[in-house]
Specification:
Largest sheet: 7 strands, parallel
CATH superfamily: Methylesterase CheB, C-terminal domain
Order of helices and strands: EHEHEEEEHEHEHEH
Strand content: 15-25%
CATH topology: Rossmann fold
CATH architecture: 3-Layer(aba) Sandwich
Number of strands: 9
CATH class: Alpha Beta
């Protein structure tokens, strides 16, 4: 159930957003990322399950549609505010304790590399209560364990309302395993994300 007051997200404490999606995820991200305003103060880390056999054009496609910078994550890259980072095909995306990105070829998790659980678990260790993690549409259980880690670390968890998802399996699994601070439709979620630009301070990775 969505909170009555969007400010309950405690935007003043947020330092990063992590998003996981699978089946139907391109359209779901298309409802969220282009709505981020120029000057959006937080980095956004995205894992979308992708075929490993070919390069992805997602970052270039979304960069052309978004007011914020969008690119494919690179190993050892410092995390910058107002930037959307897509995990490359066939690599796990992790957040290091020094707020740089890491790419890993460790084994797939729940048959996926990149895996949402890997991103959420590493980002929750780095950002703790400063992380907002979002589970969107998908047909696997990836993201459920990671969202539980986010909540244990004090972060905020949003889940797409399963009934509104192109594939409800992943958001439903996340809710069963971890619960959520709120469930939203994509329209509601997009509006709330945009408001973070008004209430969250610039984030340079560190909780200071």
């Amino acid at each position: 159930m969505a909170p009555e007051d969007p400010t309950c997200v405690a935007a003043a404490h947020l330092r990063a957003v992590a998003i996981g999606a699978s089946a139907g995820g391109v359209d779901a991200l298309g409802a969220l990322l282009p709505g981020l305003p120029a000057g959006f103060p937080l980095p956004v880390l995205v894992v979308l399950h992708l075929p490993p056999q070919r390069p992805s054009q997602l970052a270039a496609m979304f960069n052309a549609r978004c007011a914020v910078d969008v690119h494919e994550a690179q190993d050892k890259e410092p995390i910058r505010p107002g930037t959307v980072y897509f995990a490359p095909p066939d690599y796990h995306l992790l957040v290091e304790p020094d707020f740089t990105l890491a790419l890993s070829v460790d084994p797939p998790v729940l048959y996926s590399r990149p895996a949402i659980d890997v991103l959420f678990e590493s980002a929750s260790a780095a950002y703790a209560e400063g992380l907002l993690a979002i589970v969107l549409t998908g047909a696997s259980h990836d993201g459920a364990a990671g969202l539980a880690a986010v909540r244990r670390a004090g972060g905020t968890a949003w889940v797409q309302q399963p009934a509104s998802a192109a594939s409800p399996v992943m958001p439903a699994a996340a809710l069963r395993a971890a619960g959520a601070d709120a469930t939203y439709t994509l329209s509601e979620m997009g509006k709330l994300l945009a408001t973070l630009a008004e209430s969250a301070p610039p984030a340079h990775g560190r909780l200071n």
